[in-house]
């Protein structure tokens, strides 16, 4: 596989993570270096690991993952997007503090939801006989980079437009989930 094809695949896979990071950046004011690192690292790590898992699983589990992966991603994104909209409209998390999507279970759910499509890429690469380690590294690094860019961009947008952008971020997550599901049907 040539380098430009690999970068194209990596950028395409990272677009969901970029969109989610854009929404996360709108929630955080200011965005700290720690938050940038956490979300960038986790999104990059999950996006890099999922193709390896798909590649290792190979053809045996392809039918299962092909059928259920879109439903899993759809469910997670609808859940998180709905929660994001609810919190934007109520303006506070359960503990009365501004919520931080770069922490806890929300970050793990977002990491899984934005990287689950990379499993299919791993399956495809295993069928093509492509060694997985370089693609996994490139996919992870590009995803981490675009996540950081998305968060920084989201921070600027969020400081200008506030809660409206938070609702839009939740709607983007829901739209991504619906898109994933519709593409699989």
Automatic annotation (TrEMBL):
Residue ranges spanning the membrane: these are 6-28, 40-61, 67-86, 107-126, 132-153
Molecular function terms from GO: manganese ion transmembrane transporter activity
Instruction: Give the GO cellular component terms, alphabetically.
Output: plasma membrane
Q: Which domain of life is it from?
A: Bacteria
Cellular compartments annotated: Cell membrane
Q: Which residues form the signal peptide?
A: none
- How is this protein situated with respect to the membrane? Multi-pass membrane protein
Q: Which UniProt keywords apply?
A: Cell membrane, Ion transport, Manganese, Membrane, Transmembrane, Transmembrane helix, Transport
InterPro entries xref list: Mntp/YtaF (IPR003810), Put_MntP (IPR022929)
**Predominant localisation class:** membrane
Q: Name the PANTHER family for this protein.
A: MANGANESE EFFLUX PUMP MNTP-RELATED (PTHR35529:SF1)
The family this protein is said to belong to? Belongs to the MntP (TC 9.B.29) family.
Q: What job does this protein perform?
A: Probably functions as a manganese efflux pump.
Per its record, how is this protein called by name? Answer: Putative manganese efflux pump MntP
Species annotation: Desulforhopalus singaporensis
């Amino acid at each position: 596989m040539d380098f430009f094809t690999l970068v194209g695949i990596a950028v395409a896979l990272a677009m969901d993570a970029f969109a989610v990071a854009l929404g996360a950046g709108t929630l955080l004011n200011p965005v700290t270096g720690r938050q940038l690192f956490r979300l960038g690292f986790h999104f990059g790590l999950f996006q890099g690991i999922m193709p390896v898992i798909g590649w290792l699983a190979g053809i045996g589990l392809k039918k299962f993952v092909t059928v259920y992966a879109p439903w899993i991603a759809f469910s997670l994104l609808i859940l998180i997007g709905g929660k994001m909209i609810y919190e934007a409209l109520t303006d506070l998390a359960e503990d009365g503090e501004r919520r931080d999507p770069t922490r806890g279970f929300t970050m793990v759910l977002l990491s899984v939801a934005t990287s689950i499509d990379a499993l299919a890429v791993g399956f495809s690469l295993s069928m093509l006989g492509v060694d997985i380690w370089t693609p996994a590294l490139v996919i992870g690094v590009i995803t981490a980079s675009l996540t950081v860019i998305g968060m920084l961009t989201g921070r600027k947008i969020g400081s200008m437009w506030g809660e409206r952008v938070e609702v839009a971020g939740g709607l983007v997550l829901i739209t991504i989930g619906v898109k994933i599901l519709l593409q699989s049907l």
